[in-house]
Amino acid sequence: MDDVACPHFTGRSIQGAAYIPSPETIERSNVLRFMRKHEVADYEELVRRSTTDPEWFWGAVEKEIGVEWSHPYTQVLDASKGFAWARWFVGGKLNLGHNLLDRWLAAGRADTPAIHFEREDGRAGTWTYARLAEEANRLCRLLRGLQVRPGDAVAVYMPMVPQAVAAVIAIAKVGAVFIPLFSGYGADAVAKRLTDCKAKVLLTADGFRRRGALVEMKKTADAAAAECPAVKHLVMLRLEKSEVPWNKVRDIDWDIGLCPFASTFDAVPVDAEHPFMVIYTSGTTGKPKGAVHVHGGFLVKVAQEVLHQGDYHAGDVLHWATDMGWIMGPWEVVGTLALGGTLFLYDGAVDFPGPDRLWALVERHKVSFLGVSPTLIRALMKSGDEPVRKHDLSSLRAIGSTGETWNPVPWMWCFEKVGGSRCPIINLSGGTEVGACFLSALTIMPLKPCTLGGPALGMAVDVVDEEGKPVRGRVGELVCRRPWPGQTRGLFEAPERYLEAYWSRFPGVWFHGDFASIDEDGYWFLHGRSDDTIKIAGKRLGPTEVESIVTSHPAVAECAAVGIPDEAKGEALWVFAILRPPHAASEALRGEIVASVERDLGKAFRPAQVKFVKELPKTRNAKILRRAIRAAVSGAEAGDLSGLENPRALDEIRAAR
User: Fold this and answer.
1) Is the pLDDT of residue 6 over 80?
2) Percent over 70 (pLDDT), the chain
3) What is the C-alpha to C-alpha distance for residues 379 and 578, in angstroms, rounded to an integer?
4) Sheet holding 609-612: strands in order across?
């Protein structure tokens, strides 16, 4: 594609861009409105100003969002104790729950839809802000009656239903700490997190349906709570009306428990730095990491992302295919409701009862911003184009993505088949500890396939070599040189682990553990986790480079590349591939894959093994767990695997050794 002029992007070539924003898209964008308000000439200047003067930017952003403070802050940023322990909106008091709910009731939007939802069995409905307030406020009063006080931990182990959103808001409104848990966790994983955070109350459900089968959440919750003496009460929502064991001393029926209480509750004002959430991410050791996020910073950062990167407008419907236990669950709840917007929730499998379920949901509920993972798209691609073609996806304006790096073939399929070559893929990347994203595309930005665009606004990110020096045109480590409001306030009760994980590699600089690069046109790309690096005879290789080549073969739907210990080379390259129907495994196909990698990367990176499997081990957010593959093959310690959705995949990999 020839270079094309694009307003507000004066500093980069757009040679090879697949998406070019229309003048209408640019003109209606929230970020352009923000630029004009603050007399910023172009987007490159806005990035520079937002990263060199973060106090100005984040102060302007919180006013743009219209955050309601019960007591004003006196200082936007205090980094006197170092960037690792930066504080934001110093001296200010507010409540995140109030800003998601109460302010909109006061603004006369009680009848505005807050949540559209659909269950896997087809049951669907809508909750207005008034209905959400009724549920959340009664839950506030129940929690108070259970002696939950500010700072107490309350865990939410529920599927993606409206009551889970009410739980997030209620916990915030009483000043307690929200502990999101994956709905697919087993008892041991739940117990570990309940024990670590000393949860006082566990909110759960009797169960939910996944691929038609009942997931018995209450049974799992009972087994976990039995191991956690701090859990004094278990509040259960009856979604499936199934028979469940009952502890008369500890257990409370959700609807019966809420029934006596009034539907009003004044949010408790808390300091901007008061903990809102401890959200767990799997560690490479056996102990999960609990990232701490706070009322002020998390609210402002996430709302800014939905406003600017999602370009959210009144009437839009946002849906991310996620779970409350992944950071994108709290992200979509907080970001959308902070803007007075509308969420869509779905609690089942996106390919059940057929491969078109996700596209049917978009059509039925008029979703305008759809969030997916690249791995999810690769999985849905296996069913071909017809499941997409049979549905009207004209409501879509943008497609969000995160969780894994893209390969060109699935990116183009998503862009062309799902987005009709008109919807930008807002590829963003951050993490549970980041609280939001470091890198992100925008709807007004020309986009090359697989790109993340560039630095997210207010994020002073860079790509550096092993000595911490900036590099361009080649792969390096992604770092951040300044603090940001959504930054974790440490790992729960583990400050030394926090400093070791993120601040020890380059003193005073956040080390993220992702490989990234910036091309000659100024576009940023990710290349996978640096701890997934494959080192063959002293040469370093990111798994994404191999996987992009392998998945370009028409027979391959999905794959994972890992380095396996080898006496001669240090590591040998192994590839585990899932084939598209009707292709079958054969030595000829294996030879074609090996030859394609050797041709593109060189003889040194010729795969030692190509194994064909039916599944790859993935977390509930569809991220391939490469360290689990390495451990299954080599017999090494895999670390925390409690977030693994399909452990049976490891059995197949072990058998393929």
Assistant:
1) no
2) 96
3) 10
4) 556-566, 570-579, 609-612
d(CA 385, CA 398): 19
Tell me if residue 304 falls in helix, strand or coil: helix
CATH 1.20.1540.10 fits 129-271, yes or no: no
User: Which phi and psi (to 5°) does residue 154 adopt?
Assistant: -125, 120
Place of tokens 């996806």: 393
Distances in Å between the Cα of 590 and the Cα atoms of 60, 516, 537 are 56, 30, 23
As a whole number of angstroms, the distance between CA 140 and CA 264 comes to: 9
| 258-281 confidence digits (pLDDT tens) | 999 999 999 999 999 999 999 998
Q: Which of 532, 545, 542, 546 is nearest to 610 (CA)?
A: 546
pLDDT at 387 over 50: yes
User: In whole angstroms, what is the distance from residue 582 CA to residue 186 CA?
Assistant: 35
- Amino acid letter, residue 145: G
- In whole angstroms, give the CA distance from residue 533 to residue 211: 35
Nearest alpha-carbon partner for 359 in 320, 390, 324: 390
Q: How far is CA 201 from CA 189, 229, 231, 266, 481, in A?
A: 17, 11, 5, 21, 38
Q: Residue 459 to residues 50, 333, 488, 512, 600: CA-CA distances in angstroms?
A: 8, 22, 14, 13, 34
Q: Which of 479, 499, 463 is nearest to 81 (CA)?
A: 499
Distances (CA, A) of 530 to 55, 125, 286, 504: 31, 43, 20, 15
Helix, strand or coil, per DSSP, at residue 463: strand
Q: Domain coordinates of the chain in residue numbers? A: 129-271, 533-655
Cα 498 off chain centre by = 20
DSSP three-state, residue 281:
strand
Residue recorded with tokens 């910073």: 297
pLDDT at 638 over 80: no
pLDDT digits (tens, 9 = 90+) for 163-221: 999 999 999 999 999 999 999 888 988 999 999 999 999 999 999 999 999 999 999 99
CA–CA separation, 294 and 280 (whole Å): 15
Superfamily of segment(s) 533-655: ANL, C-terminal domain (3.30.300.30)
Pairing of strands 425-430, 398-401: parallel
Long-range contacts of 552-558 (CB under 8 A, 24+ apart): 552/407, 552/408, 552/409, 552/596, 553/592, 553/593, 553/596, 554/580, 555/579, 555/580, 555/583, 555/589, 556/580, 556/593, 557/378, 557/379, 557/381, 557/382, 558/375, 558/378, 558/379, 558/382, 558/616
Question: Which range is least confidently modeled, 74-83, 92-101, 529-538, 588-597?
Answer: 529-538
pLDDT digits 0-9 by tens, 85-137:
999 999 999 999 999 999 999 999 999 999 999 999 999 999 999 999 999 99
Q: What is the mean pLDDT of residues 592-615?
A: 91
Question: Residue 47 and residue 52: Cα distance in Å, rounded?
Answer: 9
Neighbours of 167 (CB within 10 A): 27
